[in-house]
Amino acid sequence: MTALHGVRIGPVGLRFRLRPLVVPLVALALTVFAVALSIRLGDFPMSVGDVLRVLAGAGDATEQYIVFDLRLPRTLTGLLIGAAFGVAGAITQAISRNPLASPDILGVTPGASAGAVGVIVLASGFGGVASVAGAIGLPVAALIGGLVSAALVYVLAWRRGVDGYRLVLVGIGVQAFMLNLTYWLLTIGDVSQAGQALVWITGSLDARSWADLVPVAVALAVFLPLALVGAHVLGALQFDDDTVRNLGARVELSRFALILIAVMLAAIATAAAGPVFFVALATPQIAQRLAGTARPPLVASAVIGALLVSVSDLVARTAFPIELPVGVVTAVLGAPYLMFLIIRKRREVRA
Amino acid sequence: MTPRLRAEELRLGYGDSLVVDGLDLDVVGGTITAVIGPNGCGKSTLLRAMGRLLAPRGGQVLLDGKRIDKMPTREVARLLGVLPQSPQAPEGLTVADLVARGRHPHQAWYRQWSSDDHAAIDEALAMTGMTDLADRTLDELSGGQRQRAWISMALAQGTELLLLDEPTTYLDLAHQVDVLDLVQRLHGELGRTVVMVLHDLNLAARYADRLVALRAGKMVAQGRPHEVLTEDLLREVFDLEAKVIDDPVAGTPLVVPVGTRHRT
Questions:
Q1: Which CDD domains match (chain B) (predicted)?
Q2: Is A233 on the interface with B (CB under 8 A)?
Q3: Hey, where are the domains in chain B?
């Protein structure tokens, strides 16, 4: 049998195939390259030697400022939110058994947008509300909005268990509600706030600092290992519920734990950079096709998500006369891909 | 003999409706039991409850004398395997991956592979004649091959008890016989205890040691095929006018329906 390889070391045993191992490694190499480019390029180009010199602690104050305060935190934030969205998307798609599902469907990103726009709009004016909104701060409001909205989706989709299909349907409803709430908030704010809010809900890495980076790094450090532990159950959760139960998996508990991981990752990433369109949706599908597996692979999704956001931000920052929000680039890349998926799906349904 | 699997005063239902009402059933180890009855009589519901996929409204299911709902679900999964009526797998899954998934109850997140797994998977594929198709994806297979792949998965699970919900649905007669011959071999060569829901009465009589006839969620008769498949019972359970003769090949009862055209 060619398809199955396994290794055993003591009580630890893993099954592996070559392609799913090679894909993340290649993607990782490309990501390192993209990160290196991203630190070098910009209004103030630097050579690799310059960057290495500055990283080692040398270089003048300007160079230090550009590398450590501008480019490095921005680049690394992009990298980490890409990884977080990738894993969150992979888990969501595996659980809902639907390649069109993403944390948007779980309510996370629309809820986070409503929370963030709420703070932006309400922080000025509106009397007492303003001080409260200002004190909460934008990332925290986004996080709360995302988590509340995800909880709403989960509770509304619950009917003696959560079914993947019902989760998607309820999620679309909550998404519509949150979007309209966001638009309403935009209309009551003044024009400059609306502009600021729109940049945020497009997803932007502009002026990200270490303070934005740290929560995402912590979230990944906590939830990525948990997701990898859960990956074994995730493989079983892809079958119909009777088959999953037959295999001795605790369906509702595992599903809840994995959805929680996806929601936390997506909410914290959204709080850091806004809902960067299509990353969570397209990444797992790209990873799955490249790795040739039957479900979105978690590690490959993390690395490809990081690569996608890194490259998109590099393009958004350097390819045009004006700097674009990264969400515009990922949307331009992602929209045709989404159409391709839908058309392919329709063909399958007809066939 | 003490039963391996036992249902006591089982009451089952979905939503507001009660499908099975007060049913007792003993499944003795090393036998093949076929559950028969008209559409909607609660056959599949009964099988799902016996395999702890459905929580009973009342009564209980005992596995080796212990309440199945009180046992850890992984422990149950190492003793009892259920093949649902129309199981669903993700797109693009290969036969080898499907069958390997049957090892889930024997694995943990840090131990996803062992030589036992390898042996069980190879054996399951060989037993069902799927070895050569191991690298195909499920959507590339014919209905009969797909059914054999799912049975392989249930086999790889390595359970002594197997509950099969209509393993022959959507298959032509030759493939039905093929699948049931396989079930017969699991029983004969590996000593598995099998409970299956079957629609074809003649095949049920041919392959099962015991028949259980249900109507409207109640057990009407159980016993050896000759005791259960009688002309009176067919009328009572299926509202079917039929002659029962001896199967010229196996000597088991053979149901020959009368139908309106030949009614006298």
A1: ABC_Iron-Siderophores_B12_Hemin
A2: yes
A3: 3-87+159-262
